[in-house]
Amino acid sequence: MEPILKVQNLSMDFGGLRALNDLDLDVISGEIVALIGPNGAGKTTFFNCITGIYPPTEGDILITPPGKKTKRINGIKPNKVTERGLARTFQNIRLFPNMTVLENVMIGHHCRMRAGILGAILKDRSTIKEEERVVENSYQILEKIGLSDFVNEFAKNLPYGAQRRLEIARAMATDPFLLLLDEPAAGMNPHETEDLDKLIKQIRDKEGISILLIEHDMKLVMSLSDRIFVVDYGKKIAQGTPAEIKNNKAVIKAYLGEDIDA
Amino acid sequence: MFLTFPIMVIRVNPIEKIIEWRWNNLILVGAGSFLISMVWRYMIERKDYGTRKAEAGEKSDQPPLIQRVMKDKRIYTPFLIIVALFACIFPFVFSMYQTNILITALIYVMLGLGLNIVVGLAGLLDLGYVAFYAVGAYTYALLNYHFGLTFWMVLPIGAGMGTLFGILLGFPVLRLRGDYLAIVTLGFGEIIRLILENWNEFSFGPSGIAQISRPSFLGMDMSVHGAIIYMYYIMIALCLFTIFFVNRLQDSRIGRAWIALREDETACQAMGIDKAKTKLTAFALGATWAGMGGVLFAAKTTFVNPASFTIWESIIILCIVVLGGMGSIVGVIVGALILILLPEYLRAFSEYRMLAFGILLVITMVFRPGGIVSDVRRIYQFKGTAETKS
Amino acid sequence: MDYFLELFLGGLTRGSIYALIALGYTMVYGIIELINFAHGEIYMIGAFTALIVISVLTMMGMNTLAILVIAGVIAVIYSSAYGYTVEKIAYKPLRNAPRLSALISAIGMSLFLQNYVLLAQTSDFLPFPNLIPDFEFMEPYAHIIGSTDIVIVITTAIVMIILTFLIKFTRIGKAMRATSQDKTMAMLTGVDVDRVISVTFIVGSATAAIGGVLIASHVGMINFYVGFIAGIKAFVAAVLGGIGSIPGAVLGSFVLGWTESFATGYISSDYEDVFAFLILVFILIFRPAGILGRSERHRV
Amino acid sequence: MRKSIRKLFVTAVFIIFSVSMITGAACAADTIKLGVAGAHSGDLASYGIPSVKAAELVVKDINSRGGIDGKKVELLVEDDVCKPEVATNTATKLLSQGVNVVMGHICSGATKAALSIYKDANIICMSPSATNPPLTQSGNYPNFYRTIASDDAQAKLEVDYALGVLKVKKIAVLHDKGDYGKGLAEFAKLFIGQDPRGEVVLFEGVTPGAVDYSAVVQKVKRSKAEAVIFGGYHPEASKIVMQMRKKRMKTHFISDDGVKDDTFIKVAGKYAEGVYATGPKDTAKNPMAIAAKKAHQKEYGADPGAFFLEAYAATLALLNAIDKAGSTDYKAIEKALKTEYVETPIGKIKFDDKGDAIGIGFSIYQVQNGVYVEVK
């Protein structure tokens, strides 16, 4: 099957520092793929390169949205990446704190709307319809995510776990085919993590959105992922199914240090 | 608490120095310094009291008064009607002078609402807003002087020129963040003023352009009094239009994008919002209003010169927005009325009025950092819609 | 060539003047990211205090050099006290408020201090005696550069070096750097953030006071409004150099001083300020964080 | 708490509104209302406040002698901060209060803005200090008069003195980019250009408030100008003169009545020596001027400030015209102003068709031993 995201030879330099080194990765439609590695391995940098926040120094990022042609998206602006159907969440939550939960999700719809200044002023029928549709849609997403009780709360007033989920809801609102989740379970308690596990699977199964996630919680990673990529010092050191990764020596070494190996 | 003690001691000292220095005014300044230090003591006490109160107040979760008033339709609607009625009959009840200063205040309401788009909604600190105001004013002044174009013809042109300059300024500063943006816009404002001041052939330099015609009503010749009343109603209409416009905008897709931009630029971009385009729209729309305000200013004053467009003007407009409450329409209106009318009514205090004005700014910010009317904007109409849907 | 040299030196003096004020701006900004609009007023108050002291001491018949030193010291003390007080009153309560609110508070403070001096003193310009004697060995060059200019340039250099040392090598300097990086973290690692901010204001205000005394003797007069105009320019200089950076503020000031000097000399003083602001815009377009500024790294 | 403050504020505003209404309504016609407008606060207050004092003295004097035709003169004093936009407010406020004639405004810009309002209301306005030439020469403001010579007259005098008496050839013309200074400099440039004896080697504006004028001074030096004509006020003038002298330049410095102020001498100190400035003809021997100054001394305990005598003369001229006309009718006052001579501290004056005073003149002064001395 044709991968929907194909990253080839990706490298990223910051000054003299090589944060990513010749990385390859691919996601096939309908997959949940995890990207793991020790702290500072370059996982978030990898996300930032894909989503256009940093232009990569070398390499290709190719996407193939369902039913469309393959495109190279190196170095295009973040908003264009989102328009093409890649949505992300952030490691440190980046909601719009002084907007309501509903509005946060509505922002996600932005690039799928067309109302301009004139539309906003005149409130012609198509604009009204569009707004209604977006409100409706946003509400549905919030229901799926389980946040429908908080619709009119300020985002900043939500509990931590709910904020994480709201980020996912907001990303889903951009109508992506691939969702990039940066440590979605960080800071969650085991109960919340379990819910998240269900939620992510649900997103893949019911919405048909493929998922690429960075995560430290191994239990979650093992339970969710179809395939796992492991990076260390900006290099890919292993890839494979959860079972394969569990027994991979290089991975164990990277995680636990040299001593264990001996 | 113990901090207030050194403050008082230190504060009084320089004044004593002045007494020493000004032998001839000894008694006068002595009494004055005593008064000032008394006022100062009083203020500090009040401040401490206020801070303690604020700390206590945070725990008791009470929604702001104005918010409650605005939520409650039973109070809100009659209130609006009264305001509207009052606004309608105002020029016939009050003197020409009152009407005139109210026109000035209304111009600032418009400017404030315009700047509110840029600063309040999109979060772009613009210290050169007055540049667009000047552009609008000179557009009318020059077109009127050279070609005799009338107010109504120039109003859209002035707005258009504002937009144009907004975009012109917008492009180079798009990359800048925060205070760098502020200082560049400040520079831009000064550049415009200096060009107007120095380029005599174009703008008649510092002596300005006089005898700009007032807006005419169906070609009728009007007395000053008539013209002022007419101007007043034009202003009321335009302000209503502005309020309508901004209100619609901020509840729209574009308005949401602005707020998102203000809240978190990176996340905003990651949500598929074109940062550059959004910023540019904000700048251009803000500038449009300033351009319109400028035309009105020229028409009201019938005289323009560069001295009216100094950086202080930008600062005052910014104060209106922040003092009133960033992003809040009602706040901006209240802010404009207070900041423009207050100095007029403070005339009785003549030389103390700017001092009082400065103190007022500090006090308001210290006690109500969110502005006089904060949080109001954030009540969105979607509430109702969403609930009915569920 | 002579003409060029003269303009160059003129620009140097002007740059040093801006630098003395810009240093305070940049320090305060570096720590709490606030455009301290009242900084220019602190400078003005420093100059006024010095003037008052000078007048009193002259009446008492002291010799000029002693007066200069005493006036300078008292001006520094008072300005520091004012800086400290202003911070406590107008900025500290707003530490967690929106940044614009603090800015407005600063503007209010600036207005207040201006009018306070206007009312307590006078709206007229007051003559400020030039206490720096004409050095005799300078006489052959007096037509090119005056002794005041030299003193200003040298003082600027000294102040800059001291400040750099202060920040790089002392305990409080370390605390300042920590605070400017991350306030919360600094607090967690045991830095008394409030104290650090106070010290920053005091040091910044002291610099401004030194500037006030020297600049006033260079210009020869002061009134309540001098702070505002000089403050805006110094702020531009600080931004130009990369706000938050000490050498940046000095470099930015020199760039600004030279730009103005050469623009006046070779083009026209009509558009002197236009060039000053144009260079600002151009530099910021190509280096959005100023000449020596750290480019903001987005943490995502 | 907040609510009560807000209530208090609203009430206060209403009270002020109603008070101003009542005062507006109460202006019955048994007094002659003389408006005095100008900068009474802000950085230009030092030019406006003396005019208020002058008006107070004149009015007090006249009222103590029974007023005009048995009517008392009432003063309405309003501040315009020298800002055009505020001046329109001031003007409408005066109209609302039923003003008959206005003495003011101080700055030319503010005057222009206010005049259009007075014109429509048929109010005569006389300024003691607005020197901008078009105010009278353009013919756009038939209701405007002034007791001060216009900029071009001063510029002419400065140029004639430089070329004729000082016999310099190369002149640098500087100005402060302001309304007044730049206007004057433009005229100076024009007059030098028309005169074969001299040439303008430099024409530049300096930025008011700048910390340092060395670059401009260098430029003057390089231009080899023998004299500088400066249009503007004393703060900039003293900075330029001081820097010129410190650079050991002996260039003549000629300026206008914005510099003919004792503050200039105080600030520039020894550097002020030899500086020329134009100012109204010496009034030291005019008995009315002496009396007026004395009255000021007695009343306020200090010497009068700038434009005091001009304002005194303007107030006298206006009230005299009302007296002669026997009414406050626009046409009648206009006729009286243009036909009847009146004795004032600045000489015996009447007004020409354009509104400029006939009978006043300017002369050149030089700083000698720390005082301005009229030179011939």
Description of the structure:
The complex is a heterotetramer of chains A (262), B (390), C (300) and D (376). By secondary structure, chain A is α/β, with parallel strands linked by helices. Helix content of chain A is 40%, strand content 24%. Chain A has two domains: 1-85 and 176-262, P-loop containing nucleotide triphosphate hydrolases (Rossmann fold); 94-174, no CATH class. In chain A, the strands form two sheets. In chain A, strands 6-7-8-3-9-10 form a six-stranded mixed beta sheet, sandwiched between helices. In chain A, strands 2-1-4-5 form a four-stranded antiparallel beta sheet, covered by helices on one side. Chain A is globular, with a radius of gyration of 19 Å. Chain A starts with a strand and ends with a helix. Chain B folds into two domains: 5-55; 94-367, no CATH class. The model of chain B is unreliable at 1-26, 54-64 and 375-390 (pLDDT under 50). Chain B is globular, with a radius of gyration of 23 Å. Chain C is mainly alpha-helical and 300 residues long. Chain C has a domain at 25-227. Chain C contains eleven helices and two strands, in the order ααααβααααβααα. In chain C, helix 2 (39-60) packs across helix 8 (193-219), helix 5 runs antiparallel to helix 8 and helix 6 crosses helix 8 (193-219). In chain D, helix 3 runs parallel beside helix 4 (108-120), helix 6 packs across helix 7 and helix 9 packs parallel to helix 10. Chain D is an alpha/beta fold. Chain D folds into two domains: 32-148 and 284-361, Response regulator (Rossmann fold), CATH 3.40.50; 152-256, Response regulator (Rossmann fold), CATH 3.40.50.2300. In chain D, a hairpin with a 5-residue loop joins strand 12 and strand 13. Chain D is elongated. Chain D is 47% helix and 20% strand. Chain D starts with a helix and ends with a strand. The interface between A and C is small, with 8 and 3 residues.
